[in-house]
Amino acid sequence: MTGRHTRHIVLAILVLAVVSAASCAPTDDLRAAAEQGDAVAQYNLGIKYDNGDGVPQDDAEAVRWYRLAADQGLADAQNNLARSYSTGRGVPQDHAEAVRWLRLAAEQGSAVPQYNLGVKYGMGDGVPQDDAEAVRWYRLAAEQGHALAQSKLGFNYLHGEGVPQDHAEAVRWLRLAAEQGESSAQYNLGISYGQGNVVQRDFVKAHMWTNLAASQSSGEEKERAVFLRDTIAELMTPAQIAEAQRLARDWEVAHPREP
After folding, report:
1. 224 Cβ partners below 8 Å, 6+ apart?
2. Alpha-carbon gap, residue 258 to 252, rounded angstroms
């Protein structure tokens, strides 16, 4: 082996060592802070173990760090710990324990656990099924702009589940969620415009919203939206279809998706 080749190999090893040290340093610093009791660091270290980001993926270790942060009252950690109990990842599945942690987080005013607690009540998952209680938590999250909560609240108003049926209120919440790109709200708004029993029938808007729902979703949800869009299209003129497609394109330009 020539001296030049040897130098290249040594240089490559040094570069790899520097890169390795640089990638480990943030995790080492995070661990040091977490071990000193920093709740945010504990939560973030839990996320790293959850995702296998810079450390081996380890559900039990993620739960350990989430719990340390959750015990200090960090709402995000309480929410993630609740998710672990709901899914049985890193701990035995326990829906009642999931609800306990969600409630602690939701009562701090955080929108994500408020929505998740609403889902628990809506499904009767770890608590007695209670649409009114689900609506209460959905509303708290929806008023903070949580799109899924807005969509759920709109659906409840649409069908009178947990609240008196109110089509105007249903459309208001569905529209807020749909404008954020929430596909189920876009789908339900499309149905509303297509049927004309909630708002004035408008096939152009019905096609636009179901078209957007199809582009924002996948799997069975996408197939359902495509079927509805194409069914509506059979009732439209070519000019109406072109206008609906233009409106959908304009909406997507105004609401670019995050990469």
Report:
1. 187
2. 12
pLDDT digits (tens, 9 = 90+) for 221-246: 999 999 999 999 999 999 999 999 99
What is residue 127's DSSP assignment?
A: S
- State which CATH number among 1.25.40.10, 3.30.70.1020, 1.10.150.130, 2.40.70.10 fits the domain covering 34-94: 1.25.40.10
Superfamily of domain 109-178: Tetratricopeptide repeat domain (1.25.40.10)
Query: Residues of CATH 1.25.40.10 domain(s) within the chain?
Result: 34-94, 109-178
Give backbone dihedrals phi and psi of 165, rounded to 5 degrees, phi first.
Answer: -60, 130
**Residue 76: C-alpha distances to residues 23, 71, 145, 245 (Å):** 25, 11, 17, 40
H/E run at residue 205 = helix 203-216
Report angle CA 217, 220, 224 to the nearest 5 degrees.
80
Closest CA to 83 of 119, 137, 132: 119
CB 78 within 8 A of CB 86: no
- Over residues 61-120, the pLDDT tens digits come to 999 999 999 999 999 999 999 999 999 999 999 999 999 999 999 999 999 999 999 999
Report d(CA 121, CA 192) in Å as an integer. Answer: 26
CA distance readout (Å), 211 to 51, 149, 186, 232: 33, 22, 9, 10
